[in-house]
């Protein structure tokens, strides 16, 4: 067993690893992350996860419900994981949670995509618990410093390609676009494709192919994205960013700034407004359905998956399913009473596959949409989605400290 596998085993048991080993791990993680672009390309199948916030035992429950990261003893799990940030703060085990995710990233780099959240920042972790936790567990701030240096290298987003617009394993009812399952795989509810999404206008006529395949009456640049690409980001959009390519140009290797495009991506929230609005968080912006629909159309996206906001049901789709919030910390702060969810996108098997262009760009349209009015934007129905909803890990699986965390879950 390698040192890394030993560290994984130790962290899975919720025991911190020694400081020199953390230093080595963070160094290796940084070398890996520095090679990643600001927007990582991920190929379906993928399980998308939202905020964790140091709730270690619930992270273990997430892996049980959503599928574990491949162990060398297992054959092939087929799933990769994309975690949308806010790994730390508030919970009692931010350290063990983050280090385990980091170990898994180093051990299985293609199976784990870690995206930066607004809590992966020096300033925020100093206020909301992670700094104190490191100090308490190691007696110095060294480990906190190593981790913060890793935060600076985390990607800002991911693009999921090759997702299917049918469920896998298939639903036993035709035309189901969304299934919601409980933590044991039992069916809670399902939603058909028809009736949810408005039909495209007559110009798309009899074209019944999957959205983005070219047979849906859409732009031709999306072959290889049968269900349209999915953008993953922690917070949301920015008024300074109108294309995914502009995200790629940000100099991300720094502490999260107080304003600007990088800040907005980590802090913004969708809201029932027109256009842009000021955020009550004091960082990032609020953005409405019109903003999302124009952005998705321009960038050939069918869906934006983001985290950042507590949702009592674990997930929440908004704006004709053009954006979804995924929240993966059940009973947040050990007191909110919410359930959590992960979002599974399955692999397309229609034969279109995913191809890469020589410039590394993958199956995207030119983005040349001029004079576009929000009303003219026909939403893509997007990939079939299976949400797995789960509750907090059983009480007896956690060594629950007596002290309650500070009750401020606004950030
Ligand atoms: Mn957040």
Describe the structure.
The protein is of the alpha/beta class and 411 residues long. It contains ten helices and 16 strands. It has helices at residues 3-12, 19-33, 56-66, 94-107, 122-128, 130-138, 142-151, 244-248, 261-267, 289-298; strands spanning 39-43, 46-49, 80-83, 112-114, 157-161, 176-181, 187-192, 229-233, 269-270, 276-278, 285-287, 301-306, 315-318, 323-326, 340-345, 385-390. The strands form three sheets. The chain has a seven-stranded mixed beta sheet, with helices on one face. A hairpin with a 5-residue loop joins strand 6 (176-181) and strand 7 (187-192). The longest helix is centred in the first third of the chain and has 15 residues, at 19-33. It is globular. Bound molecules: manganese (II) ion (MN). Manganese (II) ion binds at residues 86, 117-119, 234, 308.
Brief characterization of the structure:
The protein is 24% helix and 18% strand. It is of the alpha/beta class and 411 residues long.
Estimate the global geometry from the Cα principal axes.
globular
H/E element string? Answer: HHEEHEHEHHHEEEEHHEEEHEEEEE
- Oligomeric state of the chains? single chain
Report the structural category: alpha/beta
| Structural Rg | 20 Å
Helix content: 10-25%
What does the largest sheet look like? 7 strands, mixed
Strand residue content: 15-25%
Ligand inventory: manganese (II) ion
Number of helices: 10
- Please, what is the average pLDDT? 84
Distance between the termini: 40 Å
Number of strands: 16
* Strand line-up in the sheet with most strands: 4-3-2-15-16-6-7
Give the low-confidence spans: 72-78, 195-223, 355-371, 402-411
């Amino acid at each position: 067993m390698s040192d890394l596998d030993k560290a994984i085993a130790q962290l899975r048991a919720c025991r911190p690893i020694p400081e020199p080993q953390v230093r080595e791990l963070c160094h290796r993680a940084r070398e890996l992350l520095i090679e990643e672009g600001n927007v990582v390309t991920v190929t379906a199948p993928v399980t998308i996860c939202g905020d964790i916030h140091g709730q270690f035992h619930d992270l273990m429950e997430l892996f049980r419900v959503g599928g574990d990261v491949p162990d060398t003893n297992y054959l092939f799990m087929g799933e990769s994981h994309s975690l949308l940030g806010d790994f730390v703060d508030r919970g009692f085990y931010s350290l063990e949670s983050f280090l385990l995710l980091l170990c898994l990233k180093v051990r299985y780099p293609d199976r784990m995509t870690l995206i930066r959240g607004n809590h992966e920042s020096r300033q925020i972790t100093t206020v909301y618990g992670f700094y104190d936790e490191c100090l308490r567990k190691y007696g110095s701030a060294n480990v906190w410093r190593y981790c913060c240096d890793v935060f600076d290298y985390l990607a800002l987003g991911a693009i999921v390609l090759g997702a299917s617009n049918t469920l896998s394993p298939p639903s036993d009812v035709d035309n189901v676009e969304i299934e919601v399952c409980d933590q044991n795989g039992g069916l809670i509810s399902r939603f058909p494709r028809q009736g949810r999404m408005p039909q495209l206008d007559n110009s798309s006529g009899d074209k019944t192919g999957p959205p983005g395949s070219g047979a849906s009456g859409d732009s031709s640049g999306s072959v290889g994205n049968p269900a349209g690409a999915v953008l993953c980001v922690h917070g949301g959009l920015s008024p300074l960013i109108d294309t995914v390519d502009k995200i790629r140009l940000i100099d991300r290797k720094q502490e999260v700034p107080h304003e600007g495009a990088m800040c907005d991506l980590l802090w913004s929230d969708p809201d029932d407004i027109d256009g842009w609005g000021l955020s009550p968080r004091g960082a990032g912006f609020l953005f409405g359905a019109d903003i999302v629909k124009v952005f998705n159309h321009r960038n050939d996206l069918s869906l934006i998956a983001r985290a950042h906001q507590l949702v009592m049901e674990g997930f929440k789709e908004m704006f004709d399913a053009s954006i979804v919030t995924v929240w993966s910390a059940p009973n947040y702060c050990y007191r909110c009473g919410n359930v959590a969810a992960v979002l599974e996108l399955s692999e397309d098997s229609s034969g279109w596959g995913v191809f890469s262009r020589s410039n590394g760009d993958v199956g995207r349209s030119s983005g040349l949409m001029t004079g576009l009015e929000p009303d003219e934007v026909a939403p893509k129905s997007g990939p079939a989605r299976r949400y797995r909803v789960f509750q907090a890990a059983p009480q007896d699986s956690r060594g629950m400290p007596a002290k309650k965390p500070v009750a401020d879950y606004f950030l």
